[in-house]
Amino acid sequence: MSEPIDPEKLQAKIRQTFGYLEGALVSGMIYLGDELGLYRALAGAGPQTSTSLAETTGLDERWLREWLRGQAAAGLLDYPGEGQFELSAEGAIVLAEENHPAFAAGGFGGLPAQLAVLDRLPEAFRTGRGLPYDAFGEEGSRGIERSFAPWFRSLLVPLALPKLDGVVAKLESGVEAADVGCGTGVAVLEMAKAFPHSRIHGYEISEHALKLAERNRQDAGIENAEFHDARTDPLPDTPRFDFVTTFDCLHDMAHPQRVIQGIRRAIRDDGTWFIADIKAKETFEENMEENPMAALMYGFSVLSCMSSALSEPDGMGLGTLGLHEGLARQLAEEAGFTRFRRCEELEHPMNAYYEVRP
Fold it and tell me: What's the count of helices (H) and strands (E) in the chain, helices before strands?
């Protein structure tokens, strides 16, 4: 005999379910606001009507009116009344200031490409085989770049690297370093600009990301950086690098253990490996209870992270919340690293940081 239905619980479940649909649609509107430059136009401009915003942006007033109303209803814009809408100073940081570490709108840049693969995922559920990151096209690579670039540009060199023992002094004197899983190369180029006597190498398997990385390098006029297609030009088998980084990519890799072994072969015995990866717990129960963004993370995992990690035969399939500290330490030790330290002094809402030494 089935349980009796509680009407209040039923209504609550309906509200919850449609709340997630609302979130998806508001996310789409954030993408449009970022893509069309609307947040940048509103930042610091004071209260604006749809007419004044249309004059500023050259966009259609009626479409802007509907977008503005939706943003106010979602609480992203303030509504002082009389058809006026305003982006607060805090909202401007999150939605318009591209290089501020709290900028979040860039994370919505890859949304169309990510959602576009939904119709391909039922086959992944049936076969167990996921999609590589290049399935998201160039737009997907650019979206990932804009998600992480604010931290690289504002905090990597001035805040994070000085926390690592002896790394800045080496980079200042002139060494070779590598960023493995470099994406579009923002971290590589930031380090290359800051340390002109060193040569920074980026390794990546995404064709779209590599193309954008080289374009970024040329646009910046940086000569002491270069990018390698890791499929045809992998990490060297002999110790070459004094410093290696992996930023938010190990959990995406089909075979992270092989990559970590490759890093150990390529790093000098007195070198440093700096890991940034998603702050994960060892059990699902811990992730669910302690991570307020767990649902978001598991969603990203199905769409991209776990999918990428299962895109090759026998992929490890870690997924977004799969590389907890214990597993990272285990994989490093198995590869021959002997010192592993969590950088507790580096705080981030999503990431954990580790300093690893041979």
Answer: 16, 9
Given a cut of 50, the residues of the chain with pLDDT beneath it are none
The CATH number for 322's domain is: 3.40.50.150
Q: Which domain holds residue 243?
A: 116-357
Please report, rounded to a whole number, the percentage of residues in the chain having pLDDT higher than 70.
100
Distance of CA 170 to CAs 174, 175, 240, Å? 6, 6, 14
| Residue 254 is assigned to a structural domain of this protein | yes
Quote the number of domains for the chain. Answer: 2
Cβ atoms within 10 Å, residue 232? 7
Q: Rounded CA gap, 247 and 278, in Å?
A: 9
Residue 318 burial (CB < 10 Å; 0-12/13-18/19+)? Answer: buried
pLDDT for position 2:
74
In a domain, 23, yes or no: yes
Specify the pairing of strand 339-342 against strand 84-86.
Answer: unpaired
pTM, whole model, 2 decimals?
A: 0.92
Q: What is the largest CA-CA distance in the chain?
A: 75
Q: Name the 3-class secondary structure at 307.
A: helix
Contact 351, 276 (CB under 8 A): yes
